[in-house]
Structures are given as structure tokens and as C-alpha cells.
Write a structure and sequence with these properties.
300 residues; alpha/beta; 7-stranded mixed sheet; 6-stranded mixed sheet; 13 strands
């Protein structure tokens, strides 16, 4: 069955900002509250905003309780995860999505939130991979922010990327799935693992050793998750690290090492990931990927 799209937002509706992973202060999401208000939305800050337990935004129970409250409240029409880091996966097995199912709403975030995006898709719902409130006001992120607004208010989106020597030309259609490579690999074998079969997979990552990238892609390959892809979209692989003895390949070359074993189209250099220009994508929504000799496009 196609993934269910929550209702698009309307001015005057209420939305929530919660922190499911790393701690964040009210001051760090102040710009986001003003921007969301300028979009005509009423903003509610969850109890996790300003809470702290070591690196987390409160302990697991507080963060779970906060997210559960927003999932259950039918007056909350979208949930923005404030920032990534680590910790979202620790909450998922104790969450109840029955109230969410009665009144689906948009959940938006990326990075560590990839596991929540995948969990929702596995349950049959679309969600948004996009810029988070912690970074709403960053320089160079204007297109990322406007794309998030477009998705939330029901506008179609289309992105282009320049040609890349590792591109494999072709056209693919299918629901979009993906996000942060390390979180996708970590979700393998769990209740949050969404199938890649027949779908367009998109990947991004940050601050990983190059051999980690190879190890994670090898896992996806050996577990059969790459075999049924309709297409592959490759975004930012930022601040990659290497050992004293170099691995010998850059991140895109490592991806190509595995992607070349299959026949699906592959497009690199898309504006998605841990850079300021992180365009919004709808996980679970049908998409069309066109990879040509002059460049690539992805539309939803």
C-alpha cells in the first residue's frame, strides 16, 4: 500500500518543536519559532527543549514522554525535531503510534531522525527529511528552509544537481526512502527498517571515517538491501576522515564501488545532508529521478 501523506499545513495551525536526541536550549530554537510564526503557525515548545541529561535533551523517559504527547495531541499538526546528534532510536520501541494513526501529522528532521523517518515509513506514513529548527537561521540555508515550507504547505518540489563523472544515466520512479547512512545501517534488522525494494534510496553522512562508509555500504550490499533499488540519490558526505594509512578512495568512489554492481541509475551531488543547502525530501512519497549526461533532477 502507498504510504499515507498527513494533511498539509494551514495558517493558524499549531506545531511543536521537540528534542529527541541531543540537548538544545530555548535560545537555540528562538529563530525557528519566529520563522514558523511568520509562516502563520502557532509554535509549542516541548518539555525536552531546555532539558538536559548529559548530552541528551533529558533522559530517555522525558524525551519519549514529550514526543508521545505531541504524537497523541490532534491539535498538533506537525512535529519538528529540534536537532540531531544521537538518541532518537532509544525511544522508538516504547512509543505508541495509535493516536498518531487516528490523526496523522508531519514529522520533520534528518540525521539522527533518519531512524524515526524509517520507523514511520515502516508503519505506512510519509515524513520529511529536512532542515531542523536548530539550524533554521544558518547562512546559506535559505533554499533549504523554503523547500521545507513548500513541502509542509503542499507544494511540489524539484531539485537539480550538476553532472558528475560517477553518475549512471537513467530514469527511476518509486517512493523515496533513505537518509543518514549510519542510521540506515544501524536500523537493519529492527522494527524501524524500511524496505528499499522498488524505491529510490537517498544517502548522506557526516564526520565518518572512510573505511566506516565502506563497511556500512558493504553491510547494505551483503544484506541484500541494494539489490532491489529503483535508483540511488547521493547527497553530501561531509567532513570525511581518514586513517594515517589512507583508505584509498573518497566517499563517492566508495559508493560507486558498490553501486556499479547493480543496474539502477545513480545521481551524485544532490543538495541533501549536513550542509546548509539541505533541501527537504518527503520519505515515502513517490519521486522521479532523472540522471543524464548534463546533470540530474529529482522531483516529488
Amino acid at each position: 500500500m502507498p504510504a499515507i501523506a498527513p494533511p498539509f499545513l494551514q495558517p493558524g495551525q499549531r506545531v511543536a518543536i521537540v528534542a529527541t536526541a541531543r540537548k538544545v536550549s530555548p535560545a537555540e530554537v528562538e529563530a525557528a519559532t519566529h520563522i514558523l510564526a511568520a509562516w502563520g503557525l502557532e509554535v509549542v515548545l516541548g518539555e525536552s527543549i531546555g532539558a538536559a541529561a548529559h548530552q541528551f535533551a533529558g533522559d530517555d523517559e522525558l524525551r519519549r514522554r514529550d514526543l508521545q504527547r505531541q504524537l497523541d495531541d490532534p491539535a498538533i499538526r506537525a512535529i519538528f525535531c529540534a536537532r540531531g546528534g544521537y538518541g532518537t532510536a532509544r525511544l522508538l520501541d516504547e512509543l505508541d503510534f495509535s493516536g498518531f494513526a487516528r490523526a496523522p501529522k508531519w514529522v520533520a528532521g534528518f540525521s539522527d531522525i533518519t531512524v524515526l523517518n524509517g520507523h514511520l515509513l515502516q508503519l505506512g506514513y510519509q515524513s520529511i527529511h529536512g532542515v531542523m529548527p536548530f539550524a533554521f537561521g544558518q547562512a546559506g540555508g535559505e533554499l533549504a528552509l523554503s523547500s521545507l515550507r513548500s513541502v509542509l504547505f503542499g507544494e511540489s518540489i524539484s531539485y537539480e544537481a550538476p553532472a558528475h563523472p560517477l553518475n549512471r544515466p537513467g530514469t527511476a520512479t518509486g517512493e523515496l526512502v533513505g537518509g543518514n547512512l549510519s542510521l540506515l545501517q544501524t536500523s537493519t534488522g529492527t522494527r524501524s527498517q524500511a524496505s528499499f525494494a522498488g524505491r529510490i534510496l537517498f544517502l548522506e553522512d557526516l564526520d565518518e571515517y572512510l573505511y566506516h562508509v565502506d563497511r556500512m555500504l558493504l553491510h547494505l550490499h551483503r544484506s541484500g538491501q541494494l539489490a532491489g533499488l529503483a535508483g540511488l540519490v547521493v547527497g553530501h558526505f561531509s567532513q570525511m576522515r581518514d586513517n594515517a594509512i589512507p583508505f584509498g578512495q573518497e566517499a563517492y568512489e566508495i559508493i560507486d564501488h558498490y553501486a556499479r554492481r547493480y543496474s539502477f541509475p545513480v545521481g551524485y551531488n544532490f543538495p541533501v545532508g549536513h550542509e546548509a543547502d539541505n533541501r527537504a525530501l518527503v520519505v515515502g512519497r513517490p519521486a522521479t529521478l532523472i540522471v543524464g549526461t548534463e546533470g540530474n533532477s529529482l522531483s516529488q
